[in-house]
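Section 5.1 Outputs to date
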Amino acid sequence: MNAMTDHKHLHLSNRHLDALEEETVFILREVAAAFERPALLFSGGKDSLVMLKCAEKAFGIGRIPYPLLMIDTGHNFHEVTDFRDLRAKELGAELIVRSVEDSMARGTVRLAHPGESRNVHQSVTLLEAIEEFRFDALIGGARRDEEKARAKERIFSHRDSFGQWQPKAQRPELWTLFNTRLQPGEHFRVFPISNWTELDVWQYIEREQIALPSLYYTHKREVVERKGLLVPVTELTPAKPGETPELRDVRFRTVGDITCTCPVESLAATAADIVVETLSAEVSERGATRMDDKTSEASMEKRKKDGYF
């Protein structure tokens, strides 16, 4: 009976993942058909790797019809950027990298102080890349379960000629019918895994055996506790006076700019281990690991209106 129950549970889980995968593949193909110059935002993180796996299934290795685009803050974990380059090469995909540091050199990004997080300034570099390549659609890996401002966003999110999101002017998406009409200078942000949850992502990673940067799994790292978060001790995020670094077993639930991304304590060494952990998690991955997301919903909406992902 137990074996039958386990088999039935596995079958249902796979059917659920099949439906999510089918929807994502459909959206990725829809973007290729509806737009002239789309690009897939690819950070090397787990969500973009899941999306890339679906793109591989949609088009085949060496046949993804749009380039991969990364906006690099210059403060990314090398494990992630190295993995990004490797995966793009394996798939035979064109990889375009544009850097916040280049925007700083041009004077379009100015930091309030040298230690300021560059994460929020990615929007400037992204808009510059859109103008440079005349992209009319950018495919991103945001999910609705991550935070409230993202939960409001459509799968096909219309942006005006300034790259701004207008939540009150969103187009309806009834019966999976997407309005992709654009005026000159406008573009879309498209989120094919909007309806996935963190648990879905990890179940899919386990099922498809998707390789990830090592940071996602348990490893020993020096950290300090700060405002309820574990802050990694690095050159960019050193311990403050009075703080005592501790060596702990941790993993990252999400990876991004080193200056605002925190690990969680974990012994999870496989995707299956993380599925079990995620089932018992009481805080969203961004709420538990991102220093820059300790903001109000209104603040996040403002960032998105300014052209943020």
